[in-house]
Amino acid sequence: MAALRAEGVDTIYRAKASGKSVKNRPELEKAIDQPGTGDVLVLSEWDRCTRSMTDGIAIIERVHKRGASVKALDRDYLDLTKPINRGILAFLSALAVTRGTGSSSVRTTAAPPPRPKARGSAASPS
Question: Among residues 16, 19, 79, 90, which is most buried (max CB within 10 A)?
Fold first, then answer.
């Protein structure tokens, strides 16, 4: 709570729910749905709000669609108010898209084809 107040957060949603899912967590839902354009959803602990990578991506996506950003106080790289972190996320997303389309940076090589046999006649020096 102190970290959120020090960050200047106006509205704090608090939940004591724990478990393996982010479903049925009304306070988290309110917090995600609250930010508007230009706002920042500040999370004190990233792993307390998410239970998997896909949960985290879904939260970021929902907040982004509202025109807001996400900032996790315990994960500096998840401060998406910083241009460098948004750039890294965009880069990783681009890699995922490339991998999903079947493109690959891995190249395989086969053995060189056999050399063609010489045609015609050959003469040997006498």
Answer: 79
| Full-model pTM | 0.68
Looking at the domain assignment, is residue 110 inside a domain?
no
pLDDT of 62 > 60? The answer is: yes
The CA distance from 73 to 50, in Å, is 14
Q: How far apart are CA 42 and CA 67, in angstroms?
A: 14
Question: What CATH number does residue 50 fall under?
Answer: 3.40.50.1390
CB 88, CB 78: distance < 8 Å: no
Rounded to the nearest integer, the mean pLDDT of the chain is: 79
Of how many residues is the chain composed? Answer: 126
Site of tokens 């690959």:
104
